[in-house]
Amino acid sequence: MKQLLSLLTICLLVLGFTSPSFAQEDKDCGHFSTWKEAQHFYNTNDPGNDPHDLDRDRDGIVCESLAGFDENYEAGTPLGDETTDTTDPTNEGAGLAETATYYPVGVTIGLIVGAIGLFLLLFKRRTTIE
Fold first, then answer.
1. Does position 95 have pLDDT exceeding 60, yes or no?
2. How far apart are CA 86 and CA 35, in angstroms?
């Protein structure tokens, strides 16, 4: 029983200090409803590195099979909604990068699991001492 409680305590402590909030969902063409949406995502999320492997043929154009594919599109040129210059300091209201995360939720879950692990560790020590 003591070994099981020790194993559970260690697992809860390890899980309490790891956060799934940094994991990013892998995108593929099925996550987008139109080609323009997929191309915009590609253009704004490190196209040189292509972490989602959307551009399999490495021509700078992604998901050619999706609805709305523009055969005249030249790789690297901005789409209609990407023309806002966010580097201009006089350009008020420029769009922000998509950086939303579930960090607060992950931290809260981590703290709860960590507290449970700490409680079990203290409970184990008390039962061992007595």
1. yes
2. 24
